[in-house]
Amino acid sequence: MADKYDVIVIGAGPGGYVAAIRAAQLGLKTACVEKWVNKEGKTVHGGTCLNVGCIPSKALLETSHKFVETRDHYDEIGIEVGELKPNVAKMLEFKEKVIAKNVGGISALFKANGVTALEGTGKVVGNKQVEVTGHDGDKATYEADNIVIAAGSVPVEIPPAPLTEDLIVDSTGALEFTEVPERLGVIGAGVIGLELGSVWKRLGSQVTMLEALDTFLPMVDKDVAKETQKLLKKQGLDIKLGARVTGAEVKGKEVVVKYSDGSGEQEQTFDKLIVCVGRRPYTKGVVAEGVGVELDERGFIHVDDQCRTSVPGIYAIGDCVRGLMLAHKASEEGVMVADIIAGHKAEMNYDAVPSVIYTSPEVAWVGLTEQDAKAKGIEVKTGSFPFAANGRALANNAPEGLAKIVADAETDRILGMHIVSQHAGELIAQGVIALEFGSSAEDLALTCYAHPSTSEAIHEAALAVDGHAIHMANRKKRK
């Protein structure tokens, strides 16, 4: 029998590595199992997020955005540049450097905090036992008083469009294109599809997005979704709603996609096709039969509000449990679970988890949409403010978008904040804090904001909730 630990974490993604570090900081003997191997055959930490998801996609989003900004908008503000062209090879090289710095940072944090890194595939084989199969096939069994399953998720594959190397790819493959495809198809106009479609559209692709739903971004407040769709269409993204893909056939170096929409059966040819229809929990084989950990029909591990499974001492966090599949949600769950294991009282406010789409402009939201609130029978009042009336946004040459606040009509309590703008992913933190502290719209309205700043749009939206916005015509009169 190998070493015994207080805590063994399976998976070193944003949920797992944070849980392991937090547990070690609290004085618990901790190990973290990771099977991810990079191109050089070395075990790396960080999971999907750092290796093939959040971080590398943002590197390409930022570089492609800088390219378009330089090419199309610098002249507007008095900066003249010569002929530009994207260097995809260097962009990919930059992306790999960003990945290396991030995953290397986690390994350093493990060492600094005394977390034992176990290399291989982890499997719960008993309520206090984890079997680790090394990359060489050798097996070792470890005991732990507590086990945290943080196995993450993988892209969903669909039968009509089976993955074909370098032609029909998932989100991982879409980050590896070595040249800009002339015609790019994207199945799914959700968060991942919009981000990847934006990257390659900026670099020169003709991008067509096929979305089966009739509604664009249904999880986003309608006003923000409508504005976002308008802005992305203006950028040249061809977003086809109600387009259900029925087949994809590889013909030479092209992909012929068949889909049905309101006009009947359609066909379109692409040089590359990205499948972005969501993700599913990676739980198959993570827990041996007979252990007692319950899964639902979709493969998610059943947990309570504090991420306890049906077996005492076994927890599960992140993408393999209910809730939003977001790295920061997983990280906070990891902290909560580690605190609980250490004997502290801890909980997580799932009503204050922000979401961000890193297009340009960015889309961010937290809490209830106006539509969600009304569906719950809550009478609401709302306030919106356009960034076109914000001095800093105009000075930044980024006047697109709006900020919207949803508040309870009776109590004035802020229920949600929704933004589409430059740096919306940063601005939304104000909404998260407001929800965490139970702020009213008046609280934000009475707050002194720095001028000039794009944050002032949030201030004005809060003022607009009661018709008191300063820098726009008001429909209501101050009482």
UniProtKB/TrEMBL annotation:
Disulfide bonds: C49-C54
Chain positions recorded as FAD binding sites: K58, G122, D319, M325, L326, A327, H328
Keyword Oxidoreductase set for record: yes
Cofactor-binding details, from the entry: Binds 1 FAD per subunit.
Domain FAD/NAD(P)-binding: 5-334
Keyword Disulfide bond carried by entry: yes
Entry-linked NCBIfam families: lipoamide_DH (TIGR01350)
Name recorded for this polypeptide: Dihydrolipoyl dehydrogenase
Originating organism: Billgrantia gudaonensis
